[in-house]
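Late entry, written up from scratch paper. The run itself happened at the end of the previous shift, but nothing got recorded in the book at the time, so transcribing now.
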Amino acid sequence: MDLDNLAQISKRDLEIIQLHQFQQPIYCCNVTAIAYAFTALGYLTTVDEIFYATQLPIASVLDDGMTLAETYDTCRTYLEKKEIPLSIRIEHFDKPSMTLEAFIREVEAAVCDENDVHILNFNTRIAHENPSLEGGHFSLLADYDPKTQEITIADTNPKRYTRFWKCPIQRIYAACVDKDSSSNRSRGMIVLRRQEKANLAANGVVHPSEIALNALHSE
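Output as recorded:
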């Protein structure tokens, strides 16, 4: 049995995400976000593995960056080649149905569901209210506090932005609505969801991530 590819069990997205830490190679936040998301869902993945499996041209990542749609295509190609039992969905935020209220509902449900992970594509200048930043970025949705209406981001570039940071949900929504000049479409999100759960108990196996989570919950 391949323990690396057994799904993790958790109560909230933050709890499965904080078990892992990723630091993007330069200009690779998109591929790093994919690896981070797969790993958080229990399928240990590296940036190198994604480049190798998808035969992704390095220039397409380093020179022009990747749009949300291109990142989605890379993510879908990887999971199909690896036959990983995850579904994948893309949402551009220029869709009329993707209102702030719809986004809040999605986030509230997502952070309490251990079976999915959301990759957000947003403009860092808007999210951090800093005009000197580069622009487009990919990171994971980790948590949401409905009382403060703050969203927690698990960043793919913790050396620059810190591992976790908070932002008002209205601002991160505006950062996702921002139009990517490369695609002439709004940014948005990619949602990965488990299609099946690993039955660890039936096989008499305790996954290392479950041990870590049990320790986390007992604190």
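The two ends are 30 Å apart (CA to CA).
(Scratch paper discarded after transcription.)
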